[in-house]
Amino acid sequence: MDVDAGLLRAFLVVADEGTMTAAARRLFVSQPALSGQIRRLVRATGLDLFVRLPVGVRLTTAGEAFAPYAEQALAALERGVAEAAAVAGRGSLRLDVLDPSLAVPRRAVARLRERLPQLTLEVTGRGSVEQVRRLRAGDLDVALTGTSTTPDDLTDTPLLDEPLGVAVAAAHPLARATDVHLDQLTDDVHYLPRAEFAPEWVDLVVGACRAAGFEPRLLPLRTESAGGPLQLVAAGECVAVSLLSTPAPQGVVMVPLTDAPAYRWVVRTAGSGALVTSALAALHGLT
């Protein structure tokens, strides 16, 4: 039976989402490509796994019976790769997550610890430029970063899209707004990290502001953590376009941005060995 992990993963995501459109979006593939994967799985198993509804799909009785075994097979593959890596003498995974205080990196680390308990995680947060250097030098196994131009010698695997918000002081006129358009921030001073620390973030925010019709005025002070700038926001020194999930400290309100592009998290790697394969499998489907 020719059934690989990708087909099982596609089946489980479609079953979870209930529509091909939502499942394709979650898997970062086209809907025709996903439909092709499901057809391949149906041919390989000889089972009708889904029944079409007026809107979406649902599992057949056979699909419901098959689902727990598909989950077990994927979990066994993840554990097997991790065990093999440990036996081969590589019992640790070197992971850089940009900033360990951010919500998605925290969830990613928790997922890896849950699904790959055999491995010791060595977690750092040194910025995307340093990530590229370390991956190329063989000093890093996996990097969690934001999408940008992927270097030719590295591989980016999409993980999830995260909406943006703007952090404003509690006394800011927009603090009580339900959402904000970027052009409402034209007159504010904006905080951005150093371009050499996170160029993809600077490009995203500056590009979004320019698309909204203005050049952001920048605070001439930089830090390399998510928490430092928010203290400046609380003091009324600036506003800061941020990931919407960033925890807001006392004195700061995070307001959703309605016209800003999402930040796409990717898993960046330099190879495809056992450790990398295991980490990618464990992180797949992170929400």
Written description of the protein model:
Belongs to the LysR transcriptional regulatory family. InterPro entries: LysR_HTH_N (IPR000847), LysR_subst-bd (IPR005119), WH-like_DNA-bd_sf (IPR036388), WH_DNA-bd_sf (IPR036390). Keywords: DNA-binding, Transcription, Transcription regulation. The protein is α/β, with parallel strands linked by helices and 287 residues long. It has nine helices and twelve strands. A five-stranded mixed sheet has the order 4-3-5-12-6, with helices on both faces. The radius of gyration is 21 Å and the shape is globular.
Q: Please identify which CATH superfamily of the largest domain we are dealing with.
A: Periplasmic binding protein-like II
If helices are DSSP runs of H or I spanning 4 or more residues, what is the number of helices?
Answer: 9
- Secondary-structure class: alpha/beta
Radius of gyration: 21 Å
Strand content of the residues, in percent?
A: 15-25%
Protein name: HTH lysR-type domain-containing protein
Keywords: DNA-binding, Transcription, Transcription regulation
Family: Belongs to the LysR transcriptional regulatory family.
InterPro entries: LysR_HTH_N, LysR_subst-bd, WH-like_DNA-bd_sf, WH_DNA-bd_sf
Chain-wise SSE layout:
Blueprint: H1 5-17, H2 20-27, H3 31-45, E1 50-52, E2 57-59, H4 61-87, E3 92-96, H5 103-115, E4 120-124, H6 128-137, E5 142-146, E6 155-162, E7 164-169, E8 189-190, H7 199-211, E9 217-218, H8 227-234, E10 240-243, E11 252-256, E12 263-269, H9 274-283
Parallel strand pairs: 3-4, 3-5, 8-9
Antiparallel strand pairs: 1-2, 5-12, 6-12, 7-10, 7-11
Helix pairs in contact: 1-2, 1-3, 1-4, 2-3, 4-9
